[in-house]
Amino acid sequence: MMEQDAATRRAWRDGIGVSVATSAYGVSFGALGVAAGLDVWQTCVLSLLMFTGGSQFAFVGVIATGGWGALPAAIASAALLGVRNVAYGLRMAPVVGGSIARRLTAFPFTIDESTAVALAQSSARARRIGFWVTGIGIYVGWNLFTLLGALLGDVLGDPRAYGLDAAAAAAFLALLWPRLRRVEAVAVGVAAGVVAGVATPLTMPGIPVLIAGAVAIVVAAALPGRRPPRVDDEAMTAGEKP
Questions:
Q1: Between residues 71 and 139, the one the model is more confident about
Q2: Which residue, 68, 78, 123, 178, has most beta carbons within 10 Å?
């Protein structure tokens, strides 16, 4: 019981912490959206309906450089980055559980951070709590800070001067770091990171993420894995009869 309570508290703590850090990043998007030529309401609608930071930044980045004539390219870039959320949805389906209606409700909140927080927990209940707390917390906070950033965009100046462009990446790295305990995981992460870094200046927004994902899958498949524990192995480890 005490272990379950500790796991639940950790899930709440992780979810709230990541929500606060990532929501603050919304100020940056709001300011950049207005700077790219969107008005306040257009910027806010993007956060309300798209709600996937990478896709949103790709969209306004293309609009900023190519204007509204580049709208098809902006949509394509955002869609490419949004593909990863489909994979997250498949992975989170057993975590969310329940009816189809519940899974559909969870879909808008299935993002990088909610997936990472959920998978970092040690029990099924804690994973569900981590997912919902993080997903809903970021959705509310992101939209509020997007509005704030859009309204104060001219006053803030360049959002990168405040380090807000690194807030989400730092929060995600904090969750990822404890999972990099095995050489295989480090190798996959390094390979994907190097490929993404090389591809970024050479390809359109969205492509580096997909290339890095493909490389991660190939490297992970090529590395020798460990035999997964059997049920009787786990039982004997716990001091129980198989």
A1: 139
A2: 78
